[in-house]
């Protein structure tokens, strides 16, 4: 029976947010799609439609690119004092902070992630990225270069122009921030297409950017589908660069379609990251890291630690621990503050994950826990652990993008490194050990863009993030994250006196 104290301490359920922006945002105007079409966005926890959103296509993208082009070619944005650009990005962050609870609720409603994750994880990280790049705005400069002959040579770092930005549904606010931050700091203008599953928070952020005083046409948002709106951004001759986060298959289509106009491309794609636990590790910390590494964001993370390599001498006990932790993970209503895991984003992702679970069983792996749907409404899946997984099984090779962990056993370090690297992906990896020499040695030998040692999913706006191999190219975050938005111009001046 609930006591008075229980009631007073009971955490409050977050309120449902209002949906205010559902139209296209082009040249500072909120407008319907030229076709008049709209599409539904759903709440993955209830499968109910929450809003009709304007469905942009090639005609709308063309209007957005014209607006972005004009803002870049003749508007104030790339020409203003760079420190003022930084100030406006900080202003946007102030407005985000002012609405942080409502934004978190909107993110949760559209994506299904626990509202507490959005409030305590996604949005603070988004602010971190935007403020970090606001600080770069007035610190982007070239070099003077000693050359042979009587010349003065220097470089300028100039904005690449109009950036087309296409983002996925797993971290809508965070991906918007990672894309806008370096683009705005360098003085680029933007045409963004959020994912069709989760357009709402990106539109809300565009409204806040407008309120912050970022000039019309600098940020344009065209919600819609990949093969129509997305492809139109990729093909448009007025777009100088495309930054894409999503699947490798889509990246291949984009690369082919970008070939005609030789667009600059940066890609952040999938992963099948090895999370490696040596017997000498702090095993409680490693188990917590394995748990977060696979289950964060319902397993819908490109850097998920989905291949857990455990040294044979501790394998069985370690598996017992992670199975017990998986069983006690709270799956349910994303608006309940006690919830740790919400639904997958949509029916297609749900079906894909359940397909991999069936295939894992069929290929002979042991489903140690989970493997089933939770409830009958919403796309909820039990935290799932497979043991006795062999390297060649689909669940050990392919990106599942769900709460499904494959545990693999190892005994020898050289063999481990070979197996960990035997993948087309190379986004992230982690090593758990108390042996400092081994930690650095394995970190050096792993072919991945990020290696965590005795931690997992540690992000900082100052630390570059991106992939080796088929996990992409170019880096986001850090100083390297600016590179994709800058051209380098070399200016060489003859120092010979006139008339000689
Ligand atoms: P996921 O499997 O995570 O949904 P996708 O690569 O399909 O990954 O989607 C990521 C983003 O790419 C979304 O915004 C989607 O609409 C967009 N997209 C999908 N297909 C294309 C395409 N052919 N051209 C451009 N963008 C696309």
| Helix percent band | 25-40%
Strand content: 15-25%
Structural class: alpha/beta
User: Which cofactor or ligand species appear?
Assistant: adenosine-5'-diphosphate
Largest sheet: 7 strands, mixed
Computed CA radius of gyration, to the nearest angstrom: 24 Å
Can you list the strand order of the major beta sheet?
A: 14-15-16-13-12-17-18
* Span of the ends, CA to CA: 98 Å
Please give the number of β-strands. 20
Provide the descriptors you would attach to this structure in a database record:
500 residues, alpha/beta, six-stranded mixed sheet, 16 helices, 20 strands, disordered N terminus, binds adenosine-5'-diphosphate
Structure report:
- This protein is an alpha/beta fold.
- The chain contains 16 helices and 20 strands.
- The protein has helices spanning 4-9, 58-73, 82-98, 100-111, 115-136, 172-186, 200-212, 226-235, 248-258, 283-295, 315-327, 347-362, 394-397, 413-421, 436-445, 480-483; strands at 24-26, 29-31, 38-43, 48-54, 144-145, 151-159, 162-166, 189-193, 219-221, 241-245, 264-268, 274-277, 307-311, 366-369, 384-387, 404-410, 428-432, 450-453, 472-473, 486-494.
- The strands form 5 sheets. The chain has a 7-stranded mixed β-sheet with strand order 14-15-16-13-12-17-18, sandwiched between helices. It has a 6-stranded mixed β-sheet with strand order 9-8-7-10-11-19, sandwiched between helices. Strands 5-6-20 form a 3-stranded antiparallel β-sheet, with no helix packed on it.
- A hairpin with a 5-residue loop joins β5 (144-145) and β6.
- α2 (58-73) runs parallel beside α8, α3 runs antiparallel to α5 (115-136) and α3 (82-98) crosses α7 (200-212).
- The chain starts with a helix and ends in a 6-residue tail after the last strand.
- Mean pLDDT is 96; it is low at 1-10.
- The site of adenosine-5'-diphosphate (ADP) has 17 residues, from α8 and α9.
């Amino acid at each position: 029976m609930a006591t008075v104290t229980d009631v007073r301490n009971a955490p409050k359920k977050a309120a449902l947010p209002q949906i205010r922006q559902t139209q296209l945002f082009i040249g500072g105007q909120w407008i319907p799609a030229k076709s008049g079409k709209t599409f539904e966005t759903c709440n993955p926890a209830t499968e109910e439609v929450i809003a009709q959103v304007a469905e942009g296509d090639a005609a709308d993208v063309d209007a957005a690119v014209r607006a972005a082009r004009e803002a870049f070619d003749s508007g104030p944005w790339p020409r203003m004092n760079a420190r003022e650009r930084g100030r406006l990005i900080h202003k946007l962050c102030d407005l985000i902070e002012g609405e942080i609870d409502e934004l978190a609720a909107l993110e949760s409603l559209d994506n299904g992630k626990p509202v507490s994750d959005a409030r305590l994880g996604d949005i603070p990280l988004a602010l971190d990225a935007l403020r970090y790049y606001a600080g770069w705005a007035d610190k982007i400069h070239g070099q003077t270069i000693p050359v042979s002959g009587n010349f003065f040579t220097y470089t300028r770092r100039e904005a690449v122009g109009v950036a087309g930005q296409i983002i996925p549904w797993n971290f809508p606010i965070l991906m918007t921030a990672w894309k806008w931050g370096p683009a705005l700091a360098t003085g680029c203008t933007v045409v963004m297409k959020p994912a069709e599953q989760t357009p709402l928070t990106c539109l809300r952020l565009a409204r806040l950017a407008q309120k912050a005083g970022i000039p019309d046409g600098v940020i344009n948002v065209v919600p819609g589908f990949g093969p129509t709106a997305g492809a139109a951004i990729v093909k448009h001759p007025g777009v100088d660069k495309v930054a894409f986060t999503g699947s490798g298959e889509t990246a291949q289509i984009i690369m082919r379609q970008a070939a005609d106009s030789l667009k600059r491309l940066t890609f952040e794609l999938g992963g099948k990251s090895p999370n490696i636990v040596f017997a000498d590790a702090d095993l409680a910390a490693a188990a917590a890291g394995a748990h977060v590494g696979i289950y964060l964001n319902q397993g819908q993370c490109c850097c998920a630690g989905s291949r857990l390599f455990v040294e044979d001498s501790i394998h069985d006990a370690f598996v017992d621990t992670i199975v017990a932790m998986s069983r006690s993970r709270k799956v349910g209503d994303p608006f309940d503050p006690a919830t740790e895991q919400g639904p997958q984003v949509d029916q297609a992702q749900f079906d894909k994950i359940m397909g991999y679970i069936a295939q894992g069983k069929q290929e002979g792996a042991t489903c140690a826990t989970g493997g089933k749907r939770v409830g009958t409404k919403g796309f909820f899946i039990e935290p799932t652990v497979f043991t006795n997984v062999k390297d060649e099984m689909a669940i050990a090779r392919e990106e599942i993008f769900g709460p499904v962990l494959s545990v693999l056993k190892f005994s020898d370090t050289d063999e481990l490194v070979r197996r960990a690297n035997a993948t087309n992906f190379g986004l992230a990896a982690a090593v758990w050990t108390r042996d400092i020499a081994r930690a650095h040695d394995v970190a050096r030998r792993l072919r991945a863009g990020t290696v965590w040692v005795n931690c997992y999913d540690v992000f900082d706006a100052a630390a570059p993030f991106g992939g080796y191999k088929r996990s992409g190219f170019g880096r986001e975050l850090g100083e390297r994250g600016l590179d994709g938005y800058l051209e380098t111009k070399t200016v060489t001046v003859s120092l010979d006196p006139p008339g000689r």
